[in-house]
Design a protein that fits this description.
24-stranded mixed β-sheet; 5-stranded mixed β-sheet; mainly beta; single chain
Length: 719
């Protein structure tokens, strides 16, 4: 233990990553060719260095194993007709096994907290705010399989090259994992004024427990396509394509048949599930009338056009114009399946406050009132579900639509003297029916008498639902527009380079779908959320260059071997900072969202740019321009209003090859020397400022930075 009471202990890791790679190619005459490849990889990170006297040394052993293989065949029927067939398979397995060296909370005497894991496992988890967090899950097994079958045909007829074919991708994942199944206490309420004292006294604050998860989401994605590459004349070619790719949701293929769909109209009518009649009204599962296996209907009539054009303007190959348009769909997403295991009725337990009772008898609070719930999965048809449901209900809109992205571009390329190519282009995209996760049971802001204590009773769907209903809605849009200018010089005269400048803007109404990071100003009015994307970079410049220094072959031994023949390369990257939002960190709207609630803006948030570095680090933006909203109101600061520090970096390398006239090593043997510097000029690239105003001690400050200059040297022998 250090002088300040901090625990100091040694920790080390062991990593093993063997790989096997294979490939085979075989030509059976001039018409048939077959090829195949194989990759096996197993990354093992076992837990080492445990000390039974220090729970902080506990954890879990992890392993990632994968297999990727494919078989390809091509056959030429005649010069105008040929086909290719491809079969690919990949499997990845992530597994983790928690430590069993330490006693569980049940073994220490907390008999009123059930342990939902099999007896051979020993999960331990908890969080003592201002002190330390500890623990690990007991076990996780997640195999993922994907099979890809495709067949393409090419037929040449006159000025047309026709491509058509079919593809099907089948994906399957198995989630078998515990998730705080031994119980998780969080001491964050500071009831005595200091959370570690709350822990020592066993005071309840927040408790979380779920039965182990088991779900097998599976999805098939068939597709048909056709494309006509039509050479209208010698200097003009047009591509016309159409793709049929139905939008099919993931569905659970385990015996549980998990899934949740909340239908507001059914809730208003008091309609219940037939599969689980004791569920609150409005909440349905696969197997209920009108609820398909994936939770929402498949969309079969999905046709996406693609158009392209290439024009050799002068007919000399020095100037070209290219344009394209395409409509693309986001495949059936797996969020539906990944959220189900933590939603009633597919989970037992939940997250709830256990204030006022012992941390070790959390089920003494309502609605359990001392009765520990049964933990049978899947539940029986007659299972009773205590209401109001306090945990988050995750659901998809029963009228979900395919997420769509339109892309279009126009580029002009011109060949300049000395082998230099100038490229100028405009590119854009528009996304619609994009996904956003929103609490449709949020307490309206803010009637008289509203408090945090009566938040559950103020929710619109109380007394059945006392927590959030996180509905995944297709209500988000996004747009992107960019101007690109680049110059490229291929290797001539010992010099090559590629440089590009981009001026772009990305707008959307939500960059994330996680309810825990919801950034909406008002959950009932998303129009207030239109702003810059989190990923928006207004201006970027990148350049890479390679220069081969003269060899000085006729200038003597020193010039030839030590000063000549070096090759240098560099990559320069300069870009704007990323946008960020200023949050209050206070639940002034009294709707349970504090970590993403916005501030009020009461002044000019921008400060002069000619300040010193120390001044910028101490206050990146004008913190006096923001104020925490009054209780009972939403903040009015725009989403992604400000930008963080930009990024500038130059990576540089020097390489020299020295021939070795050593007969035992063989002819042509040599040794390469390589010197590399990342962030050559040691330019400081700072992180984003603290943008939560309730953090009064460092609001507006920058307290992090990216890597400084790193240099490395290497020798490589070839023989």
């Amino acid at each position: 233990t250090g002088a300040n009471g901090q625990i100091i202990y040694n920790a080390f890791t062991v990593d093993n990553d063997p790989q096997w790679v294979g490939r085979v190619d075989r030509n059976f005459g001039p018409k048939l060719r077959i090829s195949g490849n194989f990759l096996w990889d197993s990354y093992d990170a076992p837990l080492v260095g445990q000390n039974q006297g220090n729970i902080l040394t506990g954890g879990d052993s992890k392993k990632w194993a994968s297999v990727v293989t494919s078989l390809n065949a091509s056959y030429v029927f005649n010069p105008r007709l040929f086909t290719t067939l491809s079969i690919a398979y990949s499997r990845g397995v992530y597994s983790a096994l928690g430590s069993t060296l330490f006693p569980t909370i049940q073994e220490l005497g907390a008999t009123n907290i059930p342990d939902l894991d099999p007896p051979q496992y020993k999960p331990i988890q908890g969080d003592i705010e201002s002190w330390f967090a500890y623990g690990w899950n007991a076990f996780t097994t997640q195999p993922r399989n994907e099979e890809d079958f495709s067949n393409n045909w090419t037929y040449v007829r006159g000025n047309h090259i026709l491509d058509f074919g079919a593809e099907e991708i089948i994906s399957q994942t198995l989630f078998n994992s515990d998730f705080v199944s031994g119980g998780y206490n969080a001491w964050t309420c500071t009831q005595t004024g200091y959370n570690p004292v709350d822990f020592l006294l066993g005071l309840g604050c927040s408790f979380e427990q779920f039965a182990p998860e088991y779900i097998v989401p599976q999805n098939a994605m068939p597709a048909l396509y056709a494309n006509d590459k039509w050479k209208i004349k010698r200097d003009l070619t047009v591509n016309l394509g159409l793709r049929w790719e139905p939008w099919l949701p993931f569905a659970d293929h385990s015996s549980y048949r998990e899934g949740d769909v909340f239908v507001p109209s059914a809730f208003a009518n008091g309609t219940h599930s037939t599969r689980y009649p004791n569920l609150p009204p409005g909440l349905f599962v696969p197997g209920d009338p009108g609820i398909p296996p994936g939770g929402f209907p498949s969309q079969w009539a999905v046709f996406d056009p693609r158009v392209g054009l290439a024009w050799n303007v002068l007919g000399k190959g020095t100037t070209s114009v290219r344009a394209g348009f395409g409509l693309y769909r986001v495949p059936g997403f797996g969020e539906y399946a990944s959220q189900n295991p933590t939603t009633v009725p597919w989970t037992v337990g939940g997250t709830f406050s256990n204030l006022g009772v012992s941390a070790y008898s959390p089920y003494d609070v309502a609605p359990y009132n001392g009765v520990i719930p049964t933990f049978q999965l899947p539940p029986t048809t007659s299972e009773a579900f205590p209401t109001p449901i306090a945990s988050t209900v995750y659901s998809f809109d029963d009228h979900a639509k395919p997420m769509a992205i339109m892309e279009w571009n126009l580029t002009i390329e011109h060949q300049l003297p000395s082998g230099i190519m100038l490229h100028t282009g405009y590119e854009a995209s528009e996304g619609y029916h994009l996904l956003i996760n929103q609490d449709i049971n949020s307490p309206p802001c803010c009637p008289a008498g509203a408090t945090e204590a009566n938040m559950a009773t103020r929710r619109p769907d109380y007394p059945y639902y006392g927590g959030p209903i996180a509905q995944n809605l297709n209500q988000t849009t996004a747009s992107y527009n960019a101007l690109d200018v680049s110059v490229e010089k291929r290797m001539t005269g010992n010099l090559s380079f590629l440089g590009g400048f981009r001026w772009a803007k990305c707008l959307d109404t939500g960059s994330i779908i996680s309810l825990s990071k919801e950034e909406t100003a008002d959950p009932y009015d998303r129009r207030l959320d239109r702003g810059l994307c989190w990923s928006d970079l207004g201006v970027t410049f990148k350049m890479a260059a390679v220069w081969r220094m003269p060899s000085f072959a006729s200038r003597g031994f020193v010039m030839r071997h030590f000063l000549g023949g070096w090759k240098s390369s560099g990559i320069l990257n300069w870009e704007d900072g990323y946008p960020y939002t200023v949050f209050s960190g206070e639940d002034t709207a009294l709707n349970g969202v504090s970590n993403r609630a916005r501030d009020n803006i009461i002044g000019n948030p921008y400060l002069p740019g000619n300040r010193s570095t120390s001044q910028k680090l101490a206050e990146w933006f004008n913190t006096a321009a923001f104020a925490i909203p009054a209780t009972g109101t939403y903040g009015d600061a725009a989403r992604c209003l400000l930008r963080g520090p930009g990024y500038s970096d130059l990576d540089f390398a020097l390489i020299k090859s020295f021939p070795l006239a050593m007969r035992p090593l063989g002819e042509g043997s040599h040794i390469d020397f390589r010197a590399e510097a990342f962030n050559l000029f040691n330019h400081p690239n700072f992180g984003e400022p603290n943008s939560t105003s309730s953090a009064v001690t460092n609001f507006g400050e920058i307290t992090s930075a990216n890597s400084p200059r790193i240099m490395q040297f290497a020798l490589k022998l070839f023989f």
